[in-house]
Amino acid sequence: MDIDARIERRRRQDGSPRLIRNYDSLSPVAHVDEPSDRGPVLERLLDHLDPVFEGGLPPNAYVHGPFGSGKSAIVTALFAHLGGLSRETRSIIHTSTRAVPPTVPEFVYVDLREVTSEFAFYHGVLDELVDEPVPDHGVGTAELRERLHALLGSSRTGAVVAVDHVDDPGGIDAAALADLFAGLPSTVSWLAVGRADPEETSLSRYTATSIPVERYRRRVLVDVLMARASAGLAQQALEHDLARRIAVWAEGNAHDGLTALFVAADRADREGRTRLTEADVTAAIEEIPRPSVSLGRVLSLPANKRLVLRHLVDLDPEDRGSVTATTEAISAEPDVDLSAGTVKRFLYEMAEIAVVERVRSDLSTGKGRPPSRLELRFPPTAFRRLYDLQR
Predict the structure, then answer these.
(1) Which of 167, 217, 158 is nearest to 190 (CA)?
(2) Is 369:322 a contact under the CB 8 Å cutoff?
(3) What is the DSSP letter of 195?
(4) Residue 220 lies in a domain
(5) What is the CA radius of gyration of the chain?
(6) Which InterPro entries does the record match to this protein (predicted)?
(7) Dihedral sign, Cα of residue 91, residue 72, residue 65, residue 354
(8) How far apart (Å, rounded) are the C-alpha atoms in residues 210 and 193?
(9) What whole-number distance in Å separates Cα of residue 170 and Cα of residue 222?
(10) Residue 295 to residues 1, 131, 383, Cα–Cα distance (Å)
């Protein structure tokens, strides 16, 4: 029983009824400590990781499944628990009269959405392994690699590194990832996490086994939505029928289902209601493009690109008729300290990774090829709120 959480849900800022009590609990990019109904997958992962409980290392593996199937939630939760076990075993003081339990390897999680270079990769791994902060400047890639060799090369147990979002557009490809791990000691094994089927990716050349993750069953997704609503909304704010409608629409995609709940709750809250309505859910579903891009990918973009997107979602329709008009409107904003050329380049780069989509504009100049305009591949309400909450 989490008493603090129960008290927090009943707090009032101004004495008036409030619908949203905790945005983090509703956020589609936030993971819970105990993912719902993922016991079989957790068991398969633990079967694979079983050698660590005897002080050994498992072979490299690939965890795969469709968008929204909860891969990241499962792996981050499991590695958080195993990392705690690793720290616990290091803190035990052994005596000559007690049996010495096997030492557990280190567990490291690296999100490749936030790691786009060799330096950033080694920096991220090292930062997870040491207590003191690893400097971002004044050290080179070779020095970071040497520190990792010194730290892990002499280790009896080594480390297991989870690398998430291995097949995101614009990220590190399979061959480059294998080269990065080739630069680490042999006392490191890795667990890649991505969407592509093993037969469709070259990751299978570098991994010994694959672990599939299926989409959420409808009943389970309803339970996920009701649990998130219970933690983040006022009591009885979400009716079971509305949660089921969202789950049916989401078709097993927890990201899209949670995004619909988040957008619907934000809409109801802005209109001063304390319960979600059918209209709120309808408006939320209509706002989410299909297919949509992960909000996690959008929010992991560099700060200047996120700022450009933040202004893009608020532009009037007449300012979004063409990429040129959009560029001019965004670069004119007082808090955008970027040239028009840079803003346009950012917009094109985000189109290349499908965060936005270039479509034929309705405008016509009467000659030459018609201009293109930008369509969002994510719901603006969710991005706007999550971006502002990070500020």
Answers:
(1) 158
(2) no
(3) S
(4) yes
(5) 23
(6) AAA_16, P-loop_NTPase
(7) negative
(8) 10
(9) 33
(10) 31, 30, 7
Q: How far is CA 367 from CA 177, 209, 363, 373, in A?
A: 47, 56, 11, 17
The one-digit pLDDT tens for each residue of the chain (391 residues) are 455 545 555 554 445 568 999 999 999 999 887 777 778 899 999 999 999 988 889 999 999 999 999 999 999 999 998 987 766 555 443 434 444 454 788 999 999 998 888 999 999 999 999 888 898 888 999 999 999 999 998 777 889 999 999 988 877 888 899 999 999 999 999 999 999 998 888 888 899 999 999 999 999 999 999 999 999 999 999 999 999 999 999 999 999 999 999 999 999 999 999 999 999 999 999 999 998 999 999 999 999 999 999 999 999 988 988 999 999 999 999 999 999 999 999 999 999 999 999 998 766 555 656 678 899 999 999 999 999 998 7
Same domain, yes or no: 230 and 329: no
Q: Which residue has tokens 């398969």?
A: 44
28 domain residue, yes or no: no
329 and 376 belong to one structural domain? yes
**Global pTM value:** 0.87
Is 199 inside any structural domain? Answer: yes
Locate 120 and state its tokens: 């950033």
Domain that holds residue 351: 295-390
Residue 139: which CATH number? 3.40.50.300
